[in-house]
Amino acid sequence: MPTNTYDCIIVGAGYAGLSAAKALSENGKSILVLEARDRVGGRAWTKHLDDGTYEDYGAMFLGVQQPNMYKLASEYDIRTYDVPLQGKSVFRYKGQTKKYSSDLLPPLPIWGLIDAGRVLKTFENMSAKVNLEEPWKTENAKKLDHQTLAEWVRLKSWTRSGKDIMRLPFELIWGADISQVSMLHALWYCKAGVSLTVLSTNDQGAQMQLMVGGGQAVANCIQKQLGSGAVHLEEPVTAVDHQDEDEHVVVKTAKGVYTANRVIFATPPPIILKVDFTPPLPTQKVKLLESMPMGKYWKIMATYSKPFWREMGLRGEVVSPDGYIGLMNDVSPIDGEYGMVIGFIAASKALAFLEMTQQQREKIVLQELGSGFGSEGGKPTRLSIHSMMNEKWSGGCPVGVPLPGTWTSLGEWVRKPIGRVHWAGTETSTSWSGYMEGAVCSGLRAAAEVMAVMGKK
Ligand SMILES: Cc1cc2nc3c(=O)[nH]c(=O)nc-3n(C[C@H](O)[C@H](O)[C@H](O)COP(=O)(O)OP(=O)(O)OC[C@H]3O[C@@H](n4cnc5c(N)ncnc54)[C@H](O)[C@@H]3O)c2cc1C
């Protein structure tokens, strides 16, 4: 086989691309992974600092019912540990700061609490009925896909606080305003991640555990297993020529031209549009990719000499529907050697943050840390405020969200191979879409597609 010819070329070395490459290579296929950035991991990026600490700018939590990520962590001897659940959470809302014990519903006025509980139950029941594989075949799919989540919440919830508390988890999950997300997508996404309750919680939820070494640790291990020759960093794919559909596909970068039997794209959906396809992708596929904008998100990381809030009987969680930082969590290392709190600023608040100077952002973040954890909270030894919104190879974060009407008009193009080109990436997964687990599932599914067709030829 000529040097630059492979069974499969994988575009993107995030969890989706790396999982596809691992599965194919373990099944005897020759692979090449082409990655635009100077590192693997994509939206999982752990920065190791000179003082021995590390910060996760992207994904870090593992959740309940995520067998593939846990299998990988165990395969590479990466320890996982629980996010602390002992102690009270803090609720900041309408100028008041209250401590509470409940894992899900915070101390709202009684009518707000009843309202939110009722709306949540209705949502969960509807979500359980969605068709995961083909959401466009769900009963009343068209109606649900043209109704925004904001409209639905407005109709179902009759208190201000109920509305606010239903809005917050969704904004945090997608980094999108709920007026830009269809009810069908909301129901589908929550079922893909078990339920809205699971997606919003630590205890037996999506934010249950952390990996020692950070969210990128497993990706680094896969890269090592594949070998340096198999993963080309800093080599973005610029063009794909698949006109010789009966023979092969040609993949071009600024550094080389490669030929493969199959190609798997494992990048965020809108980023695929940067690549020049010959012949062009079908219009429906292009429209789908254009209709899945990436979310708007900032992540803050505040480091302290120790997790001092634990001594105050707090678990490090702060929930704030009307603050800039909607949610904070304790992500201190397993040995508690130092303390770390992360926080998320999502959707329209993330856009407002873009308009500010770094000094203005720091002032707000320190104020909110202080309000959540007392004066010590406002004095971290290090503060990082980061966003992947303007990173060329992510285009936003944490996930691409289809606009209302997209699932029912273009949804069938999400995974459908086009000639020799296959589609992975967390957004294409029917299980844990939007999460590392979903990325791995999508990579394994795309690898299975490639093996199935190659086995026949
Ligand atoms: C701030 C933040 C917090 C998050 N928190 C969590 C969490 O706690 N738990 C969780 O499970 N998930 C979390 N997520 C989501 C999670 O990061 C993603 O779902 C997952 O990492 C996506 O993996 P992927 O492989 O599908 O895509 P990506 O990780 O985006 O990988 C795609 C890769 O393709 C590369 N690429 C793009 N274009 C090209 C090109 N033309 N040529 C070559 N390479 C290209 C990119 O550089 C990138 O490396 C978070 C995300 C963010 C941003």
TrEMBL record:
Catalytic activity: a secondary aliphatic amine + O2 + H2O = a primary amine + an aldehyde + H2O2
The organism's taxonomic lineage, starting at the top: Eukaryota, Fungi, Dikarya, Ascomycota, Pezizomycotina
Top-tier EC class: oxidoreductase
The protein's required cofactors: FAD
Gene3D superfamilies according to UniProt: 3.90.660.10, FAD/NAD(P)-binding domain, Guanine Nucleotide Dissociation Inhibitor, domain 1
UniProt record similarity statement: Belongs to the flavin monoamine oxidase family.
One Pfam family, short name: Amino_oxidase
InterPro entries documented for this protein: Amino_oxidase, FAD/NAD-bd_sf, Flavin_amine_oxidase, Flavin_MAO
Keywords: FAD, Flavoprotein, Oxidoreductase
Residues annotated for substrate binding in this entry: F344
Annotated ranges, domain Amine oxidase: 16-451
Residues noted as binding FAD in the record, renumbered to the chain: E35, A36, V237, E427
Origin superkingdom: Eukaryota
Protein name: Amine oxidase
Molecular-function annotations in GO: monoamine oxidase activity
Record-listed E.C. numbers: 1.4.3.-
